């Protein structure tokens, strides 16, 4: 508990003579805007003007960013009709690339207020509200999420810089095109807004009392903070004395026009973000010239704990009170202002600011690597997303780069195919050699390289992987390829190389210390004889080394026998034979057939650059929990992944018989995996699933879901259970797939996951629309829909002959309750279904889809009931059994049922 001033919990700033002098000089300061950086984003490159609403001088952002598209909202509504200041009438959008960055030069070690403003206003005519991330250095500053076309979000950060440049990046998260309207930097005194080496992001800033305008900023505020007028419920504006003049400032320099107004105050409550710590800054000034018999004295408490006091506002003089240590995270912060016993006037407040803590880390890539890659960029005119620091944010390096996790990151992977669009690759290796000796991974595949393999590669002594495949390289393999002590992968396929391969490389490949893949033509005839050179060499007319099999074996050992489940993109190309066989496509991207050693098949989901859900799904799937703890015979195994810059892939076990939905719909798709694939094979036979097969599939899927709910610690929700996410292997064993929407509970006691919509239309628990939360019982509801599909053979949304649509539960339930349950059974099962097990199966489906989630069974109970259904079906009979109980309830399954209300 905070006991008082002796705890040093708060800080207080009083005015000074210097501050008063600066107040008198305000008009002069306001005119020079010293240190201001004001960028009108998207305006023409030579733009320079003074905005009439605030007298701030703006310039174009073009010199500070090398990508993006200039857009204008004025073009849609007319410049004269646009009700926005000029700097908000244009914007820069970033439709290309995941990251696009601004480089802004500032004064190292100085404190700045950084403000970014955004206005969508349907500039693109698509009426699609975007959401995207903003990074400063290596740290997420804020997620910008538009909820209305006309909203004008603005984010502010108070930050002390650690270099001479600030790199601010807009990150495309797959929810629309990032945009920005203006970017502003305002220098502050380092003695203001003090924290322990942490940055502050603005939540709110209020001006209390009656004002002539809704908001004030520059030139009233020399720091160009934006003060918004607030009429807090229960607060009464204070009538200032007629003689009220300018208010004496302290270092915070709150504008006199803000401090000359005040409101009485009893309480101020703040709804805050759970995960954040907070700082508040309260500004006080007496605006009434008190009589001798009047006094205004009060204390301040925070959540009923002492915060500051006694506080006596000084007439026309600013006093600032703030917490020295951050306020603990809480849903609600309640500040109470309590008059002392001898006070005759109520507490007042003039201005109030709230900030939450941001830990901004400004890493910088090793300067030598920066110089090298910058020279490459300049030489070849590369634009794309090559702005800002090459490696920072570390989650989003430049396209084609991967970097080490060091305090000063190093470039360790370079994919030079990003240079291909310039078609000016010849000679780039020479430049690389001069500046980047520590590069350890080089992928030059499909880069349009021509000529001989450059001798400068020999200086990259730390290379571990070299991929020169699918270029136009000619000449013989150079001897220096034998001199790389750390080389583990060498891929040379798809070139016009001639001659022979050094025997040293062949020996290393045979010893499995090198994975080697090469195929090229030797024009002078076929010969197995070794040339009589100092280094023996082997010649072939068509020299095809199936050494790729060694690579497949190495990959297989890592994926299936060890915990190292990450592979390189070059290895993805090997196991998929250069993405030869596509077996499907979905929201994540294309799915390719892969083959490991011993003919083991896998499915490789390759992230598409245009994927709307891929990045999120990739992050969800490639988690330590999924890879290390989620293993069950009825869950499709994620056995590996690739995460290299723009090349991202997920590797799963292959499920030869596709998904359950296709079997139930009568279209049996061979070689289908993970997502609905709209293929058909003319010669493929359609096999109707028997009743016993359907029971086993239901039990398999239920056991997989039971493992996620009740065996994983913490539990996991699937959140998208449906027949197309139940896959069948060659033995018709069912496994649950697609954990792209799965989430792991924070703790075992949590029974819901909030906020983000998930699932597929028709399968989603209708109670979610009321409470907004997924729970285990939501998965059970979706599984009940699957049970209905299994017994009826119909899709979740049934279309009538007239084109009307009805949900499968709404169609089946009345027929079951009326005693006409046999009419819903899949006609293809006629004469081949055991009626008692079918009756129990229908009742179970109804239990799972009850409208009240608390009445639905736990998935473990569902498993037990499905086992009983199987036992009933063992003694197959096609005789007509009793109809389902018309007075069906949760407990009507039978006296031996373990299902009971929970």
From TrEMBL:
InterPro entries the record matches: Kinase-like_dom_sf, Leu-rich_rpt_4, LRR_dom_sf, Malectin-like_Carb-bd_dom, Prot_kinase_dom, Protein_kinase_ATP_BS, Ser-Thr/Tyr_kinase_cat_dom, Ser/Thr_kinase_AS
Principal subcellular localization: membrane
Residue stretches making up the Protein kinase domain: 577-873
GO cellular component: membrane
Gene3D superfamilies referenced in this protein's UniProt entry, alphabetically: Phosphorylase Kinase, domain 1, Ribonuclease Inhibitor, Transferase(Phosphotransferase) domain 1
Membrane topology: Single-pass type I membrane protein
Pfam families registered for this protein in UniProt: LRR_4 (PF12799), Malectin_like (PF12819), PK_Tyr_Ser-Thr (PF07714)
Reaction(s) catalysed (UniProt annotation): L-threonyl-[protein] + ATP = O-phospho-L-threonyl-[protein] + ADP + H(+); L-seryl-[protein] + ATP = O-phospho-L-seryl-[protein] + ADP + H(+)
Places the protein is found: Membrane
EC numbers, comma separated: 2.7.11.1
SUPFAM superfamilies with a match to the protein in the record: L domain-like, Protein kinase-like (PK-like)
PROSITE patterns, alphabetized: PROTEIN_KINASE_ATP, PROTEIN_KINASE_DOM, PROTEIN_KINASE_ST
Keyword terms: ATP-binding, Glycoprotein, Kinase, Leucine-rich repeat, Membrane, Nucleotide-binding, Receptor, Repeat, Serine/threonine-protein kinase, Signal, Transferase, Transmembrane, Transmembrane helix
GO MF, any single term: ATP binding
Enzyme class: transferase
Annotated binding of ATP, by residue: 605
Signal peptide: 1-19
Name of the protein described by the UniProt record: non-specific serine/threonine protein kinase
Organism of origin: Cucumis melo
The organism's taxonomic lineage, starting at the top: Eukaryota, Viridiplantae, Streptophyta, Embryophyta, Tracheophyta
């Amino acid at each position: 508990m905070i006991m008082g001033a002796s705890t040093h919990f708060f800080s207080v700033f009083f005015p000074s003579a210097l501050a008063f002098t600066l107040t008198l000089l305000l008009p002069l300061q306001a005119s020079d805007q010293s240190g201001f950086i004001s960028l009108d984003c998207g305006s023409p490159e030579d733009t320079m003007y003074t905005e009439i609403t605030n007298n701030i001088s703006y310039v174009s952002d073009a010199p500070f960013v090398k990508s993006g598209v200039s857009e204008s909202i004025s073009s849609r509504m007319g410049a004269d009709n646009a009700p926005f200041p000029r700097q908000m009438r244009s914007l820069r959008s970033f439709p290309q690339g995941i990251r696009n960055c601004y480089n802004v030069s500032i004064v190292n070690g100085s404190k700045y207020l950084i403000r970014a403003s955004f206005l969508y206003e349907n500039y693109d005519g698509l009426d699609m509200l975007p959401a995207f991330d903003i990074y400063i250095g290596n740290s997420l500053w804020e997620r910008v999420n538009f909820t209305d076309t006309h909203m004008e979000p603005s984010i502010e950060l108070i930050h002390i810089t650690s270099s001479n440049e600030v790199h601010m990046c807009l990150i495309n998260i797959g929810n629309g095109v990032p945009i920005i309207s203006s970017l502003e930097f305002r220098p502050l005194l380092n003695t203001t807004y003090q924290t322990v080496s942490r940055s502050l992001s603005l939540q709110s800033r209020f001006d209390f009392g009656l004002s002539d305008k809704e908001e004030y900023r520059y030139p009233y505020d020399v720091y160009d903070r934006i003060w918004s007028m607030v009429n807090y419920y229960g607060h009464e504006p204070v009538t200032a004395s007629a003689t009220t003049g300018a208010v004496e400032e302290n270092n915070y320099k709150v504008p006199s026009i803000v401090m000359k107004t005040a409101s009485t105050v009893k309480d101020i409550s703040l709804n805050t973000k759970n995960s954040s710590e907070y700082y508040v800054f309260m500004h006080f000034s007496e605006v009434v010239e008190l009589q001798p018999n009047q006094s205004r004295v009060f204390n301040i408490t925070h959540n009923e704990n002492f915060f500051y006091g006694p506080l006596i506002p000084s007439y026309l003089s600013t006093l600032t009170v703030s917490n020295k240590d951050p306020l603990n995270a809480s849903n609600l912060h309640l500040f109470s202002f309590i008059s002392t016993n001898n006070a005759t006037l109520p507490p007042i407040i003039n201005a109030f600011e709230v900030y939450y803590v941001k830990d901004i880390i400004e890493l910088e890539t090793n300067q030598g690597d920066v110089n090298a890659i910058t020279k490459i960029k300049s030489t070849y005119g590369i634009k794309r997303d090559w702005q800002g620091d090459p490696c920072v944010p570390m989650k989003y390096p430049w396209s084609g780069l991967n970097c080490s996790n060091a305090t000063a990151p190093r470039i360790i992977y370079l994919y030079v195919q990003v240079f291909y669009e310039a078609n000016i690759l010849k000679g780039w290796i020479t430049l690389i050699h001069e500046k980047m000796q520590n590069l350890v991974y080089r992928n030059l595949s499909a880069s349009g390289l021509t000529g001989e393999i450059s001798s400068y590669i020999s200086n990259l002594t730390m290379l571990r992987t070299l991929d020169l495949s699918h270029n136009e390289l000619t000449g013989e393999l150079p001897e220096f390829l034998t001199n790389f002590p750390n080389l583990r992968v060498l891929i040379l396929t798809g070139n016009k190389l001639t001659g022979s391969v050094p025997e040293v490389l062949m020996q290393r490949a045979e010893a499995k210390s090198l994975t080697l893949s090469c195929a090229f033509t030797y024009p002078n005839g076929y010969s197995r004889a070794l040339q009589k050179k100092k280094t023996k060499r082997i010649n072939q007319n068509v020299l095809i080394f199936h050494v790729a099999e060694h690579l497949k074996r190495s990959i297989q050992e890592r994926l299936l026998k060890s915990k190292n489940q990450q592979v390189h993109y070059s290895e993805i190309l090997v196991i998929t034979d250069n993405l030869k066989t596509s077996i499907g496509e979905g929201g994540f991207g294309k799915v390719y057939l892969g083959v490991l050693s011993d003919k083991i098949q896998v499915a490789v989901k390759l992230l598409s650059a245009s994927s709307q859900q891929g990045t999120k799904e990739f992050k969800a799937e490639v988690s330590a929990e999924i890879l290390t703890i989620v293993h069950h015979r009825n869950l499709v195994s994620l056995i590996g992944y690739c995460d290299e810059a723009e090349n991202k892939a997920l590797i799963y076990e292959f499920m030869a018989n596709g998904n359950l939905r296709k079997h139930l719909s009568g279209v049996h798709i061979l070689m289908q995996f993970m997502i609905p694939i709209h293929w058909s094979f003319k010669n493929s036979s359609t096999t109707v699933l028997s009743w016993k097969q359907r029971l086993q599939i239901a039990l398999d899927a239920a056991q997989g879901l039971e493992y996620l709910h009740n065996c994983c610690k913490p539990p996991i929700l699937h959140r998208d259970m449906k027949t197309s996410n139940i896959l069948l292997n060659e033995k018709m064993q069912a496994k649950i797939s697609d954990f792209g929407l799965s989430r792991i509970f924070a703790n075992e006691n949590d029974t819901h996951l909030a906020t983000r919509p998930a699932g597929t239309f028709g399968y989603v628990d209708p109670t979610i629309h009321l409470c907004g939360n997924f729970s285990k019982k939501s998965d059970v509801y979706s599984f009940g829909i699957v049970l209905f599909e299994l017994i009826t053979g119909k899709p979740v949304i049934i279309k009538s002959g007239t084109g009307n649509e009805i949900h499968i539960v709404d169609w089946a339930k009345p027929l079951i309750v009326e005693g006409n349950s046999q009419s819903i059974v899949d006609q293809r099962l006629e004469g081949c279904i055991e009626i008692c097990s079918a009756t129990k199966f229908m009742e179970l489906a109804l239990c799972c889809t009850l409208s009240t989630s608390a009445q639905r069974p736990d998935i473990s109970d569902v498993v037990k009931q499905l086992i009983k259904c199987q036992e009933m079906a063992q003694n197959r009979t096609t005789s007509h059994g009793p109809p389902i109980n018309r007075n069906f309830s949760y407990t009507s399954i039978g006296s031996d049922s373990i299902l009971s209300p929970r």
